[in-house]
Amino acid sequence: MATAVERDAYVLHPDDIQEPPETIWGALKFLGPGLVLSASIVGSGELIATTTLGAQAGFITLWVILVSCFVKVCIQLEWGKHVINTGEPSMAALNSLPGPKIAGANWTIWFWLLLMILKFLQLGGIVGGVALALNIAFPGISIPVWAWVTALATGALVFSGRYQFIEKAAVLMIAAFVVLTFIAVGLLQGTEYAVSWPDIASGLGFQLPSAAVAAAIAAFGITGVGGDEIMLYGYFCLEKGYARFTGPKDDSAEWAHRARKWIRVMYVDAFVSMIIYTVMTAAFYCLGAAVLHRMGTVPAGYEAMKTLAKMYTETIGPGAMWAYVIGGIVVLFSTLFAATAGWSRQFTDTFSRLGLLEFTNTRQRHRSIAILAWVMPIIWSILFLTFKAPVFMVILGGIGTSIMLLIVVYAAIYFKTKRLDKRLAPGTAYNTFFWVSAAAIALLAIRGLYSALT
Within 13 Å and on the Cβ side, how many CA atoms surround 350? Predict the structure, then answer.
Protein backbone atom coordinates (compact mmCIF):
# COMPACT_ATOMS: atom_id res chain seq x y z
CA MET A 1 0.00 0.00 0.00
CA ALA A 2 1.29 3.47 -0.87
CA THR A 3 2.08 5.76 2.03
CA ALA A 4 0.59 9.24 2.51
CA VAL A 5 3.95 10.73 1.58
CA GLU A 6 4.04 8.90 -1.76
CA ARG A 7 0.41 9.56 -2.65
CA ASP A 8 -0.66 12.39 -4.94
CA ALA A 9 -1.34 15.50 -2.83
CA TYR A 10 -4.22 16.47 -5.13
CA VAL A 11 -6.16 13.22 -4.71
CA LEU A 12 -8.03 12.65 -1.44
CA HIS A 13 -7.85 9.07 -0.19
CA PRO A 14 -9.12 7.47 3.04
CA ASP A 15 -5.66 6.03 3.78
CA ASP A 16 -4.28 9.57 4.15
CA ILE A 17 -6.70 10.60 6.92
CA GLN A 18 -4.89 12.04 9.93
CA GLU A 19 -6.38 13.29 13.16
CA PRO A 20 -5.81 17.03 13.61
CA PRO A 21 -3.93 18.51 16.56
CA GLU A 22 -6.14 19.60 19.45
CA THR A 23 -4.00 22.50 20.71
CA ILE A 24 -2.66 25.71 19.24
CA TRP A 25 0.89 24.51 19.92
CA GLY A 26 0.13 21.37 18.00
CA ALA A 27 -1.29 23.43 15.14
CA LEU A 28 1.95 25.44 14.95
CA LYS A 29 3.75 22.28 13.82
CA PHE A 30 1.63 22.33 10.65
CA LEU A 31 2.38 25.90 9.60
CA GLY A 32 3.63 26.30 6.05
CA PRO A 33 1.33 27.53 3.26
CA GLY A 34 1.04 31.01 4.77
CA LEU A 35 4.80 31.21 5.20
CA VAL A 36 5.33 30.40 1.52
CA LEU A 37 2.97 33.27 0.66
CA SER A 38 4.88 35.53 3.06
CA ALA A 39 8.04 34.88 1.05
CA SER A 40 6.22 36.14 -2.03
CA ILE A 41 4.65 39.11 -0.24
CA VAL A 42 7.80 40.43 1.43
CA GLY A 43 9.57 40.96 -1.89
CA SER A 44 7.64 43.07 -4.38
CA GLY A 45 5.01 44.36 -1.96
CA GLU A 46 7.19 45.46 0.93
CA LEU A 47 10.56 46.32 -0.57
CA ILE A 48 9.27 48.15 -3.66
CA ALA A 49 5.56 49.06 -3.64
CA THR A 50 5.25 49.89 0.06
CA THR A 51 8.38 51.99 0.26
CA THR A 52 7.50 53.77 -2.99
CA LEU A 53 4.12 54.74 -1.55
CA GLY A 54 5.82 55.95 1.64
CA ALA A 55 8.33 57.94 -0.42
CA GLN A 56 5.53 59.60 -2.41
CA ALA A 57 2.97 60.28 0.31
CA GLY A 58 4.85 60.20 3.61
CA PHE A 59 3.07 58.75 6.64
CA ILE A 60 -0.40 59.92 5.58
CA THR A 61 -1.27 56.69 3.73
CA LEU A 62 -0.08 54.26 6.41
CA TRP A 63 -3.74 53.26 6.88
CA VAL A 64 -3.83 51.85 3.32
CA ILE A 65 -1.06 49.41 4.20
CA LEU A 66 -2.63 48.29 7.49
CA VAL A 67 -6.11 47.88 6.01
CA SER A 68 -4.60 45.94 3.10
CA CYS A 69 -2.95 43.46 5.45
CA PHE A 70 -5.98 42.97 7.72
CA VAL A 71 -9.00 42.80 5.43
CA LYS A 72 -7.84 40.13 3.00
CA VAL A 73 -7.23 37.34 5.47
CA CYS A 74 -10.92 36.35 5.69
CA ILE A 75 -11.07 36.00 1.91
CA GLN A 76 -7.90 33.89 2.01
CA LEU A 77 -9.47 31.69 4.70
CA GLU A 78 -12.60 31.17 2.62
CA TRP A 79 -10.50 29.91 -0.31
CA GLY A 80 -8.56 27.62 2.02
CA LYS A 81 -11.78 26.39 3.60
CA HIS A 82 -13.13 25.57 0.15
CA VAL A 83 -10.07 23.39 -0.52
CA ILE A 84 -10.63 21.41 2.67
CA ASN A 85 -14.37 21.16 1.93
CA THR A 86 -13.99 19.96 -1.68
CA GLY A 87 -10.36 19.11 -2.45
CA GLU A 88 -10.54 21.33 -5.56
CA PRO A 89 -7.49 23.34 -6.67
CA SER A 90 -8.12 27.01 -7.44
CA MET A 91 -8.86 26.86 -11.17
CA ALA A 92 -11.17 23.89 -10.77
CA ALA A 93 -12.96 25.97 -8.13
CA LEU A 94 -13.24 28.95 -10.48
CA ASN A 95 -14.55 26.66 -13.18
CA SER A 96 -17.45 25.75 -10.89
CA LEU A 97 -18.69 29.35 -10.73
CA PRO A 98 -21.87 30.40 -12.56
CA GLY A 99 -21.61 32.07 -15.94
CA PRO A 100 -20.56 31.35 -19.52
CA LYS A 101 -17.65 29.13 -20.49
CA ILE A 102 -15.33 29.58 -23.44
CA ALA A 103 -13.37 26.53 -24.63
CA GLY A 104 -14.40 24.75 -21.44
CA ALA A 105 -13.15 27.46 -19.08
CA ASN A 106 -15.34 29.75 -16.97
CA TRP A 107 -15.29 33.45 -17.83
CA THR A 108 -13.46 34.19 -14.56
CA ILE A 109 -10.50 32.10 -15.74
CA TRP A 110 -10.25 34.13 -18.94
CA PHE A 111 -10.48 37.37 -16.93
CA TRP A 112 -7.67 36.07 -14.71
CA LEU A 113 -5.54 35.26 -17.77
CA LEU A 114 -6.04 38.81 -19.06
CA LEU A 115 -4.93 40.31 -15.74
CA MET A 116 -1.87 38.05 -15.65
CA ILE A 117 -0.41 40.23 -18.41
CA LEU A 118 0.04 42.94 -15.77
CA LYS A 119 1.25 40.38 -13.24
CA PHE A 120 3.94 39.20 -15.66
CA LEU A 121 5.10 42.82 -15.90
CA GLN A 122 5.27 42.92 -12.10
CA LEU A 123 7.48 39.85 -11.93
CA GLY A 124 9.59 41.32 -14.73
CA GLY A 125 10.12 44.27 -12.41
CA ILE A 126 11.20 41.91 -9.64
CA VAL A 127 13.72 40.23 -11.95
CA GLY A 128 14.98 43.73 -12.66
CA GLY A 129 15.27 44.52 -8.98
CA VAL A 130 17.43 41.45 -8.37
CA ALA A 131 19.56 42.24 -11.43
CA LEU A 132 20.07 45.85 -10.29
CA ALA A 133 21.06 44.71 -6.80
CA LEU A 134 23.52 42.20 -8.21
CA ASN A 135 24.95 44.90 -10.47
CA ILE A 136 25.54 47.11 -7.43
CA ALA A 137 27.46 44.27 -5.80
CA PHE A 138 29.31 43.21 -8.96
CA PRO A 139 29.33 46.20 -11.36
CA GLY A 140 31.71 44.45 -13.74
CA ILE A 141 28.84 42.27 -14.94
CA SER A 142 26.08 44.04 -16.87
CA ILE A 143 22.47 44.31 -15.74
CA PRO A 144 21.12 42.23 -18.67
CA VAL A 145 23.50 39.39 -17.82
CA TRP A 146 22.36 39.47 -14.20
CA ALA A 147 18.73 39.41 -15.35
CA TRP A 148 19.38 36.18 -17.25
CA VAL A 149 21.31 34.69 -14.33
CA THR A 150 18.36 35.51 -12.05
CA ALA A 151 15.84 33.92 -14.42
CA LEU A 152 17.85 30.74 -14.89
CA ALA A 153 18.61 30.41 -11.17
CA THR A 154 14.90 30.68 -10.38
CA GLY A 155 14.04 27.98 -12.89
CA ALA A 156 16.78 25.70 -11.62
CA LEU A 157 15.54 25.91 -8.03
CA VAL A 158 11.84 25.47 -8.74
CA PHE A 159 11.58 23.02 -11.63
CA SER A 160 12.24 19.90 -9.57
CA GLY A 161 11.26 21.27 -6.15
CA ARG A 162 8.47 19.64 -4.15
CA TYR A 163 6.44 21.39 -1.49
CA GLN A 164 8.69 20.68 1.49
CA PHE A 165 11.71 22.15 -0.27
CA ILE A 166 9.71 25.22 -1.35
CA GLU A 167 8.43 25.80 2.19
CA LYS A 168 11.87 25.56 3.84
CA ALA A 169 13.63 27.63 1.20
CA ALA A 170 10.98 30.35 1.34
CA VAL A 171 11.31 30.73 5.11
CA LEU A 172 15.12 30.90 4.95
CA MET A 173 15.03 33.50 2.18
CA ILE A 174 13.10 36.07 4.20
CA ALA A 175 14.71 35.57 7.63
CA ALA A 176 17.93 37.55 7.01
CA PHE A 177 16.22 40.60 5.52
CA VAL A 178 13.63 40.65 8.31
CA VAL A 179 16.41 41.02 10.86
CA LEU A 180 18.15 43.74 8.84
CA THR A 181 14.95 45.74 8.44
CA PHE A 182 14.15 45.71 12.14
CA ILE A 183 17.67 46.84 12.94
CA ALA A 184 17.25 49.71 10.46
CA VAL A 185 13.91 50.75 11.99
CA GLY A 186 15.41 50.65 15.48
CA LEU A 187 18.47 52.67 14.52
CA LEU A 188 16.22 55.12 12.68
CA GLN A 189 15.16 56.52 16.04
CA GLY A 190 18.68 57.79 16.71
CA THR A 191 18.82 59.87 13.52
CA GLU A 192 17.21 63.00 12.11
CA TYR A 193 14.66 60.70 10.45
CA ALA A 194 13.23 59.41 13.76
CA VAL A 195 9.55 58.44 13.69
CA SER A 196 7.26 60.11 16.24
CA TRP A 197 3.73 59.28 17.39
CA PRO A 198 2.27 62.30 15.51
CA ASP A 199 3.82 60.80 12.34
CA ILE A 200 2.04 57.49 12.96
CA ALA A 201 -1.22 59.20 13.97
CA SER A 202 -1.24 61.23 10.75
CA GLY A 203 -1.27 57.97 8.82
CA LEU A 204 -4.41 56.68 10.55
CA GLY A 205 -6.79 59.39 9.34
CA PHE A 206 -7.92 57.64 6.14
CA GLN A 207 -6.66 60.44 3.91
CA LEU A 208 -5.60 59.70 0.33
CA PRO A 209 -3.79 62.47 -1.59
CA SER A 210 -4.74 62.50 -5.27
CA ALA A 211 -1.06 62.34 -6.30
CA ALA A 212 -0.64 59.03 -4.47
CA VAL A 213 -3.80 57.24 -5.64
CA ALA A 214 -2.10 54.98 -8.20
CA ALA A 215 0.68 53.99 -5.80
CA ALA A 216 -1.85 53.45 -3.00
CA ILE A 217 -4.05 51.19 -5.14
CA ALA A 218 -0.98 49.25 -6.27
CA ALA A 219 0.26 48.90 -2.70
CA PHE A 220 -3.20 47.75 -1.58
CA GLY A 221 -3.16 45.09 -4.28
CA ILE A 222 0.33 43.82 -3.52
CA THR A 223 0.72 44.19 0.24
CA GLY A 224 -0.74 41.57 2.49
CA VAL A 225 -2.06 38.66 0.47
CA GLY A 226 -2.87 39.78 -3.07
CA GLY A 227 -5.56 38.32 -5.30
CA ASP A 228 -3.09 36.01 -7.00
CA GLU A 229 -1.60 34.86 -3.70
CA ILE A 230 -5.04 34.05 -2.27
CA MET A 231 -5.61 31.82 -5.30
CA LEU A 232 -2.20 30.19 -4.81
CA TYR A 233 -2.93 29.46 -1.16
CA GLY A 234 -5.17 26.53 -2.06
CA TYR A 235 -2.39 24.69 -3.92
CA PHE A 236 -0.03 24.94 -0.97
CA CYS A 237 -2.81 23.92 1.46
CA LEU A 238 -3.37 20.81 -0.64
CA GLU A 239 0.33 19.99 -0.82
CA LYS A 240 0.79 20.64 2.90
CA GLY A 241 -1.98 18.11 3.53
CA TYR A 242 -4.88 19.96 5.18
CA ALA A 243 -7.47 18.57 2.73
CA ARG A 244 -5.77 15.19 2.37
CA PHE A 245 -5.63 14.70 6.15
CA THR A 246 -9.34 15.55 6.38
CA GLY A 247 -10.15 12.87 3.80
CA PRO A 248 -12.80 12.55 1.10
CA LYS A 249 -16.01 14.33 2.03
CA ASP A 250 -18.88 12.24 3.39
CA ASP A 251 -21.91 12.67 5.66
CA SER A 252 -20.25 11.30 8.78
CA ALA A 253 -19.80 13.26 11.98
CA GLU A 254 -16.15 12.16 11.98
CA TRP A 255 -15.46 13.92 8.67
CA ALA A 256 -17.12 17.12 9.89
CA HIS A 257 -15.06 17.02 13.09
CA ARG A 258 -11.78 16.55 11.20
CA ALA A 259 -12.67 19.26 8.71
CA ARG A 260 -13.44 21.79 11.45
CA LYS A 261 -10.20 20.98 13.25
CA TRP A 262 -8.03 21.16 10.11
CA ILE A 263 -9.73 24.44 9.20
CA ARG A 264 -8.68 25.68 12.64
CA VAL A 265 -5.09 24.68 11.85
CA MET A 266 -5.37 26.61 8.59
CA TYR A 267 -6.66 29.63 10.55
CA VAL A 268 -3.54 29.51 12.72
CA ASP A 269 -1.33 29.28 9.62
CA ALA A 270 -3.04 32.26 7.99
CA PHE A 271 -3.07 34.46 11.09
CA VAL A 272 0.55 33.78 12.03
CA SER A 273 1.65 34.67 8.51
CA MET A 274 -0.59 37.77 8.62
CA ILE A 275 1.18 38.99 11.77
CA ILE A 276 4.56 38.45 10.11
CA TYR A 277 3.81 40.31 6.90
CA THR A 278 1.83 43.10 8.62
CA VAL A 279 4.70 43.93 10.96
CA MET A 280 7.18 43.72 8.09
CA THR A 281 5.03 45.88 5.84
CA ALA A 282 4.64 48.57 8.49
CA ALA A 283 8.40 48.55 9.06
CA PHE A 284 9.16 48.99 5.36
CA TYR A 285 6.57 51.72 5.04
CA CYS A 286 8.02 53.66 7.97
CA LEU A 287 11.48 53.48 6.39
CA GLY A 288 10.17 54.82 3.09
CA ALA A 289 8.08 57.56 4.69
CA ALA A 290 10.68 58.63 7.23
CA VAL A 291 13.78 58.59 5.03
CA LEU A 292 12.90 58.75 1.34
CA HIS A 293 9.91 61.10 1.65
CA ARG A 294 11.84 63.55 3.80
CA MET A 295 14.71 63.41 1.33
CA GLY A 296 12.30 64.04 -1.55
CA THR A 297 13.46 60.87 -3.30
CA VAL A 298 11.22 58.32 -5.06
CA PRO A 299 12.60 55.01 -6.43
CA ALA A 300 12.50 54.84 -10.24
CA GLY A 301 14.26 53.27 -13.22
CA TYR A 302 17.68 51.68 -13.00
CA GLU A 303 18.45 53.81 -9.92
CA ALA A 304 15.58 52.24 -7.93
CA MET A 305 17.68 49.85 -5.85
CA LYS A 306 20.29 52.52 -5.07
CA THR A 307 17.49 54.84 -3.96
CA LEU A 308 15.98 52.16 -1.73
CA ALA A 309 19.43 51.54 -0.24
CA LYS A 310 19.31 55.01 1.31
CA MET A 311 16.75 53.69 3.81
CA TYR A 312 19.58 51.62 5.26
CA THR A 313 22.67 53.71 4.64
CA GLU A 314 20.98 56.77 6.19
CA THR A 315 20.04 54.84 9.32
CA ILE A 316 22.68 52.16 9.83
CA GLY A 317 25.51 53.92 7.98
CA PRO A 318 27.39 53.63 4.68
CA GLY A 319 28.59 50.16 5.62
CA ALA A 320 24.99 48.93 5.42
CA MET A 321 25.06 49.07 1.64
CA TRP A 322 26.45 45.55 1.39
CA ALA A 323 23.98 44.19 3.93
CA TYR A 324 21.17 45.89 2.03
CA VAL A 325 22.32 44.53 -1.33
CA ILE A 326 22.55 40.98 0.01
CA GLY A 327 19.21 41.28 1.81
CA GLY A 328 17.56 42.91 -1.20
CA ILE A 329 18.72 40.12 -3.48
CA VAL A 330 17.41 37.50 -1.06
CA VAL A 331 14.02 39.08 -0.44
CA LEU A 332 13.31 39.88 -4.09
CA PHE A 333 14.50 36.45 -5.16
CA SER A 334 12.13 34.94 -2.59
CA THR A 335 9.25 36.59 -4.45
CA LEU A 336 10.43 35.12 -7.75
CA PHE A 337 10.90 31.73 -6.12
CA ALA A 338 7.47 31.60 -4.45
CA ALA A 339 5.66 33.08 -7.46
CA THR A 340 7.29 30.60 -9.85
CA ALA A 341 6.38 27.69 -7.59
CA GLY A 342 2.78 28.85 -7.29
CA TRP A 343 2.15 30.10 -10.82
CA SER A 344 3.59 26.97 -12.43
CA ARG A 345 0.92 25.02 -10.55
CA GLN A 346 -1.80 27.55 -11.29
CA PHE A 347 -1.13 27.72 -15.03
CA THR A 348 -0.94 23.93 -15.17
CA ASP A 349 -4.35 23.81 -13.50
CA THR A 350 -5.61 26.38 -16.04
CA PHE A 351 -4.33 24.34 -18.98
CA SER A 352 -6.24 21.40 -17.55
CA ARG A 353 -9.50 23.42 -17.58
CA LEU A 354 -8.80 24.21 -21.25
CA GLY A 355 -8.39 20.51 -22.01
CA LEU A 356 -4.67 20.71 -22.80
CA LEU A 357 -3.67 18.19 -20.11
CA GLU A 358 -5.03 16.25 -17.13
CA PHE A 359 -4.22 17.96 -13.83
CA THR A 360 -4.92 14.73 -11.94
CA ASN A 361 -2.37 12.89 -14.11
CA THR A 362 0.70 13.15 -11.89
CA ARG A 363 3.21 12.75 -14.73
CA GLN A 364 1.55 15.37 -16.93
CA ARG A 365 1.20 17.79 -14.02
CA HIS A 366 4.83 17.47 -12.91
CA ARG A 367 6.09 17.85 -16.47
CA SER A 368 4.02 21.01 -17.03
CA ILE A 369 5.17 22.51 -13.71
CA ALA A 370 8.81 21.77 -14.54
CA ILE A 371 8.57 23.37 -17.99
CA LEU A 372 6.77 26.46 -16.70
CA ALA A 373 9.36 26.83 -13.94
CA TRP A 374 11.89 27.59 -16.69
CA VAL A 375 9.65 29.41 -19.18
CA MET A 376 8.07 31.98 -16.87
CA PRO A 377 11.28 33.48 -15.42
CA ILE A 378 12.67 33.73 -18.96
CA ILE A 379 9.58 35.70 -20.05
CA TRP A 380 9.89 37.96 -16.99
CA SER A 381 13.53 38.66 -17.84
CA ILE A 382 12.63 39.57 -21.43
CA LEU A 383 9.93 41.96 -20.16
CA PHE A 384 12.37 43.69 -17.82
CA LEU A 385 14.98 44.10 -20.52
CA THR A 386 12.30 45.50 -22.83
CA PHE A 387 10.69 48.05 -20.48
CA LYS A 388 13.65 48.76 -18.12
CA ALA A 389 11.37 50.33 -15.48
CA PRO A 390 11.18 47.91 -12.52
CA VAL A 391 9.25 50.17 -10.11
CA PHE A 392 6.67 51.15 -12.75
CA MET A 393 6.28 47.49 -13.74
CA VAL A 394 5.66 46.50 -10.12
CA ILE A 395 3.09 49.31 -9.74
CA LEU A 396 1.23 48.09 -12.85
CA GLY A 397 1.21 44.58 -11.43
CA GLY A 398 -0.18 45.91 -8.16
CA ILE A 399 -3.07 47.58 -9.99
CA GLY A 400 -3.73 44.29 -11.79
CA THR A 401 -3.70 42.49 -8.44
CA SER A 402 -6.24 44.94 -7.03
CA ILE A 403 -8.57 44.26 -9.96
CA MET A 404 -8.00 40.52 -9.58
CA LEU A 405 -9.38 40.82 -6.06
CA LEU A 406 -12.82 41.36 -7.63
CA ILE A 407 -12.73 37.78 -8.94
CA VAL A 408 -11.32 36.47 -5.68
CA VAL A 409 -14.00 38.13 -3.54
CA TYR A 410 -16.80 37.06 -5.87
CA ALA A 411 -15.58 33.46 -5.75
CA ALA A 412 -15.18 33.53 -1.95
CA ILE A 413 -18.76 34.74 -1.56
CA TYR A 414 -20.01 31.97 -3.86
CA PHE A 415 -17.98 29.31 -2.04
CA LYS A 416 -19.27 30.53 1.31
CA THR A 417 -22.94 30.90 0.43
CA LYS A 418 -23.45 28.09 -2.11
CA ARG A 419 -20.86 25.36 -1.65
CA LEU A 420 -19.70 25.33 1.98
CA ASP A 421 -20.93 22.36 3.99
CA LYS A 422 -23.44 23.67 6.55
CA ARG A 423 -21.58 21.76 9.26
CA LEU A 424 -18.55 24.00 8.68
CA ALA A 425 -20.43 27.30 8.95
CA PRO A 426 -18.52 29.89 11.05
CA GLY A 427 -19.89 32.09 13.84
CA THR A 428 -21.37 35.58 13.78
CA ALA A 429 -18.09 37.41 14.47
CA TYR A 430 -16.33 35.74 11.55
CA ASN A 431 -19.28 36.33 9.24
CA THR A 432 -19.39 40.02 10.13
CA PHE A 433 -15.68 40.48 9.48
CA PHE A 434 -15.94 38.53 6.24
CA TRP A 435 -18.69 40.74 4.79
CA VAL A 436 -17.01 43.95 5.92
CA SER A 437 -13.75 42.75 4.36
CA ALA A 438 -15.45 41.74 1.12
CA ALA A 439 -17.13 45.14 0.82
CA ALA A 440 -13.90 47.05 1.55
CA ILE A 441 -11.88 45.02 -0.94
CA ALA A 442 -14.53 45.33 -3.64
CA LEU A 443 -14.70 49.12 -3.27
CA LEU A 444 -10.94 49.54 -3.46
CA ALA A 445 -10.65 47.07 -6.33
CA ILE A 446 -13.26 49.02 -8.28
CA ARG A 447 -11.29 52.18 -7.53
CA GLY A 448 -8.21 50.43 -8.91
CA LEU A 449 -10.09 49.43 -12.05
CA TYR A 450 -11.23 53.03 -12.51
CA SER A 451 -7.64 54.26 -12.11
CA ALA A 452 -6.44 51.75 -14.70
CA LEU A 453 -9.04 52.85 -17.25
CA THR A 454 -8.75 56.65 -16.80
Answer: 20
Amino acid at residue number 2: A
Beta bridge partners of 102: 105
pLDDT single digits (tens) 366-424:
999 999 999 999 999 999 999 988 888 988 887 888 788 889 999 999 999 999 999 99
CA atoms within 13 A on the CB side of 196: 5
Tell me the pTM: 0.85
In angstroms, the CA 72 to CA 358 distance is 31
The β-bridge partners of 106 are 101
Distance of alpha carbon 282 from alpha carbon 451, whole angstroms: 25
Closest to 206 (Cα-Cα) out of 67, 402, 366: 67
Distant-in-sequence, close-in-space partners of 13: CB < 8 Å, separation ≥ 6: 7, 244, 247, 248
Half-sphere exposure (Cβ direction) of 207: Cα atoms closer than 13 Å: 12
Say how far apart CA 323 and CA 202 lie, in whole Å. 31
448 closest CA partner among 45, 64, 43? 64
Domains along the sequence of the chain with CATH: 15-453 (1.10.4160.10)
